[in-house]
Design goal:
By secondary structure, the protein is an alpha/beta fold. It is 25% helix and 17% strand. Strand 3 and strand 4 form a beta hairpin. Helix 2 crosses helix 3 and helix 2 runs parallel beside helix 10.
Amino acid sequence: MGRGDTNQKKRKRQEAKATTNGTSTVDTSKPTAVFKPTKGRDWTVSVALPGSIISNAQTHELRTSLAGHIARALSVFCVDEVVIFSDGNTTPPSKRSYNGTHFSARQSDSNQDGYTGSSDHDHFLIHLLSYLETPPHLRKLLFPMHANLKTAGALPSLDLPHHLRQDEWCAYREGVTKPGASEKGTFIEAGLKIPVSVEAQIPEKTRVTLKFLEGAQEAVENKETTEIKAEAVNPDEPREEGGYYWGFNVRKASCLSDVFTECVYEGGYDLTIGTSERGADVETLYTEEERLTFKHLLIVFGGVAGLEVAVKNDEELQKLGVVEAKDVFDRWINICPGQGSRTIRTEEAVWIGLMGLRRLVVNNK
């Protein structure tokens, strides 16, 4: 293709933006469904699923793609937390732990140096999800080169609201602290032309959520500025105060019961939904006399053998005498009644389930 052909295509795109016969036309060459915050929200949506689903993918490329599909679903439906638990339906992982929480910078575990896609499925999935959720300009600072991530760059972008370009303004922004913190404060790399300064002293290579101070927007737009001021805030503030969807926190649970007992929200999950082909039709949620509302919603998906296996292999639930998986949840739901295929893969179930429960989330006030 010659330069003339390229320029001709550019002119056509520009002409599409102009008015035609006095009527404005929409430029469809760029996304228009940009997230627009309305008001702050204190309620959350969490998803839990077993890391054993990685064992259903036979190659590294398929494992990476599976993680990418799940990350896209979590992002599209504004899920605030994803919990990866062990259902006991895979080779026991090593004792090494992985802490990838929103409050501890979601950094990778340096102790997990080797490839874990075939040995520690929980870690592999957590590693990929944490990497994809991180703003692209911060990934090199938080995630060293690792065999798990060798093809992650080829996955579709999540394009989350906090994945901001350098020329995009938002009152909040994610950053990573630079070395050299002193009594005067800390410099933070936030993807802008110069580092952002905060008064607090924060250890280097820590991911922080920033809220810009008054005058910061003018400083960002000024090419000659020498200082951009902000303050480090709780990672939940963009959601609770600003109304933004600010990505998902990644948490690990050693078993299904730990998904509940180690909940990071005060008071725990007040509405829990287990998904199964043996559950009630999802539409029954919308025909109940009293409309369902929640503060912290948890939606749990099973692996290849379903949630029943996770319950059977959970020592704490067995001690409590739990036999039926449906007894663990407030609602036991079939997200796709009358399915044509004999099985629905977990990465497919996440998309189907979040869409089926969309009304429950949107109508929650």
